[in-house]
């Protein structure tokens, strides 16, 4: 894990306060010594502390201590030792020999490993190693031999696996493993018969061992926190129902289910869950029916819009021809790719029109001979169905040259088939034919 958020630079700003607290404690023989946040960097700054064998509680949290001296074990009556939020990187071997130490808080330090024999505490009940840099391979061999341990806090470290020896902590009631890199839990965790709190949130767990069903966590005081993992189905679905159902689910995969919740209580719980699910299902079905109705309505509206769109397009095409009157000699009329039915008007276009785009339509009958009588320039045929022409791609007439229109080309002069049906011959003249002068060719 990242290093603890505390500065380890030595300072003397609060040293006088620490000495004052020590002197007062010696004078009144106070068994509880609180030196929290006194700017202490070393035990040498607290002279006489290691000889105060009468103290039972020592608080040195929120200081800048880097090392713990072996002499701390001389405090033979010490029951509670709080060294949280310091800069401690190593611990002395003698620490685990303290005969009365019940609570040890070493959280928020810089521990990468623990000394050999660390698990030899004779009466330790609570051990907090949260927010350090510990891994499964840096724990001493006897770490899980502390039979008196009731609460173990290993959150915010670098564990990927939990050693099977965890089963030796027979009296463990609280196990906190949150915010590690745990990939799986050992099946031996199911042997912790007194466990009432299990915190595994913020890891990389995907499944739980079936043996977790052995845990007696059916009471209201039991806590199981599992958020922030990568659960796979059906684990994720089962966890949504609660820990009781999850435990029973795990037991279902065993040969002999031993879910500790009584059959009657479990049946009642299951009935409640089923009832809730049925209610939710009914809501979903009602919502689905409503959505289907709205969908049908939307389909009708879309169909209506499509019809209106088709009508509007036809009206626009007709309007473009009906309103074709212009004083601009460079006017361009583009109805390429259009399907207008108002083709009869095309024959009466005025000569002001300089570009008539009718390519990509369905013109079928255009007489080449008649076209050549009035078309004095090269015409290009594009994507129409010209059946009466010998050459379907283009036909050429002599090029006209004069001062006004030199090297100019007319393109895209085509008409809908309805205008020339029944082999009608249409004689073109310059007042009836639109020209395109394309100077780019």
From TrEMBL:
Keywords, sorted A to Z: Acetylation, Coiled coil, Leucine-rich repeat, Repeat
Ranges in a coiled coil: 274-366
GO term, biological process aspect, one: signal transduction
Cited PROSITE patterns: LRR
Example of a GO cellular component annotation carried by this entry: cytoplasm
Domain Disease resistance R13L4/SHOC-2-like LRR: 120-217
Matches recorded under Pfam families: LRR_14 (PF23598), LRR_8 (PF13855)
Function, as annotated: Potentially plays a role in the Ras signal transduction pathway. Capable of suppressing v-Ras transformation in vitro.
Name assigned to this protein: Ras suppressor protein 1
């Amino acid at each position: 894990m990242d290093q603890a958020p505390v500065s380890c630079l030595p300072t003397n700003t609060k040293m006088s306060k620490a000495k004052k607290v020590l002197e007062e404690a010696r004078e009144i023989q106070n068994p509880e010594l609180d030196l929290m946040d006194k700017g202490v960097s070393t035990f040498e700054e607290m002279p006489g502390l290691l000889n105060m064998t009468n103290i039972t509680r020592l608080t040195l949290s929120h200081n800048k201590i880097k090392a713990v001296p072996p002499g701390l074990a001389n405090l033979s009556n010490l029951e509670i030792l709080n060294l949280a939020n310091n800069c401690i990187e190593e611990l002395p071997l003698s620490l685990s020999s303290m005969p009365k130490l019940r609570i040890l808080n070493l959280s928020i330090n810089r521990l990468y490993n623990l000394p050999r024999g660390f698990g030899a505490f004779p009466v330790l009940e609570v051990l907090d190693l949260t927010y350090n840099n510990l891994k499964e391979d840096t724990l001493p061999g006897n770490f899980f031999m502390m039979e008196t341990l009731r609460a173990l806090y290993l959150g915010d470290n670098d564990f990927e696996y939990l050693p099977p020896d965890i089963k030796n902590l027979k009296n463990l009631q609280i196990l906190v493993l949150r915010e590690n890199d745990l990939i799986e839990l050992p099946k031996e965790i199911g042997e912790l018969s007194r466990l009432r709190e299990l915190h595994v949130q913020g890891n990389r767990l995907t499944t739980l061992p079936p043996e977790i069903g052995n845990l007696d966590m059916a009471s209201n005081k039991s806590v199981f926190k599992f958020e922030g993992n990568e659960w796979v189905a059906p684990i994720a679905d089962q966890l949504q129902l609660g820990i009781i159902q999850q435990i029973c689910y795990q037991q279902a995969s065993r040969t002999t289910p031993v879910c500790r919740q009584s059959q009657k209580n479990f049946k009642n719980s299951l009935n409640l869950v089923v009832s809730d699910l049925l209610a939710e299902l009914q809501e979903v079905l009602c919502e689905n029916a409503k959505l289907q109705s709205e969908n049908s309505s939307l389909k009708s509206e879309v169909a209506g819009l499509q019809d209106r769109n088709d009508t509007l397009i036809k009206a626009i095409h007709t309007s473009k021809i009906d309103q074709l009157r212009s004083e601009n000699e460079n006017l361009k009329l583009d109805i390429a790719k259009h399907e207008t039915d108002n083709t009869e008007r095309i024959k009466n276009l005025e000569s002001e029109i300089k570009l008539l785009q009718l390519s990509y339509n369905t013109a079928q009958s255009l007489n080449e001979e008649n076209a050549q009588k009035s078309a004095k320039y090269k015409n290009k045929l594009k994507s129409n169905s010209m059946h009466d022409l010998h050459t379907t791609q283009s036909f050429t007439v002599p090029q006209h040259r004069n001062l006004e229109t030199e090297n100019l080309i007319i393109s895209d002069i085509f008409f809908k088939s309805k205008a020339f049906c029944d082999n009608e011959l249409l004689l073109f003249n310059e007042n009836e034919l639109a020209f395109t002068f394309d100077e780019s060719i």
